[in-house]
Amino acid sequence: MSRLTVVVVAGLLASCSQLPAGGPAGDEFVSIASQTSSLKYELVEVTPATLDVLRYREDETFAGRFKGEGGRGSDIIGVGDYVAVTIWEAGAGGLFSSPAGTLGGGTKSALIPEQPVSQQGTISIPYAGSVNVAGKSPDEVKLAIEEALAGKAIEPQVLVSVTRNIANTVTLTGEIAGGGRLPLSNRGDRLLDVLSAATLGAPTHELFVQLTRGRDTIRVPLQRITTVPSENIFLRSGDVITVTREPQTFTAFGATGGNAQVPFDALGVTLSEAIAKVGGLQDMRADPAGVFVFRLEPPEIVRGLAPESPLLATGAPVPVVYRVNLRDPAGLFLAKAMRIYNKDLVYISNAPLNELQKFLLLVNSVTQPAFTGLSVANQLDN
Where are any strands of DSSP class E within the chain? Predict the structure, then answer.
């Protein structure tokens, strides 16, 4: 009887590595990371110093990239704008007024129908010829026309109006309804002024705003623009604004209340919030000292975390495994401060005692039928 038990248990011990598990144990990450010859990732203990380095991982911002640009509107006329001109004369019988004594007493003004500014930047005015208007304000064009008509018309007075603003516009497109080419006002328009003219096609926290200005393209979450005033920057003519939808998610598995891909419901989620979203740590399974976050980090961040890492040689993003020890009360504060990013993976390892419990259950499931059979056989022999 005892010999059979020893044989069965020995066989089970030999196959302990085949016990079912939700993933690798916490100490396996440490042992693999210490084998530099087969190193495939960097294992980083989360400390206050770690969080200081990760603060430099902040995304690009409109305020940081386009600082000092814009600030007010522009009334400068550009190629493609439509311009209308009205000309008054001091008396009747001039170039643009009807003769005196005609019905109505003679008009003293004439309206030049709207016309687009040519590729050469000019418009055509009778008796003044081609007038350069591109790059000038309506007041400057007014003076230019009056000077061109001096000595030809009777003390001409001119009014210049931009009837259709084409050059001083921005383009709004993407996951919206009501976009297109939108004119900018002379007072100056901010990003949210233009976005408010359209209907968004998704919740705010799932939308990103991409601004292309010249050769620069910056992408910022819409929720950041609505909550951080400095991100609501002034626009410039020619800006292209594209609204895209990209639901942000993280994946959780291991000894949690539920293994799932979890969407963000706000701009940012901390590690403590992420754990809470999946039901927390399972009391009978989880190892509080084995909370891990898997992430691809840019090389400049890894240089601050592990400057001697051989994985920096490739220049590619580096796989990093962060470990937080929630057995230590300080770890709870670290988890509350550590930000989770899109596509992060949160893993909770099983406690060592849980593996022992699995083993004992397996031993019991195998030996119990054998013991029962031997007991019945002994009773029949007696």
Answer: 42-45, 82-88, 109-116, 122-125, 129-132, 157-164, 169-174, 176-177, 180-183, 199-200, 207-213, 216-221, 240-245, 249-254, 260-263, 269-270, 286-297, 318-324, 339-340, 345-350
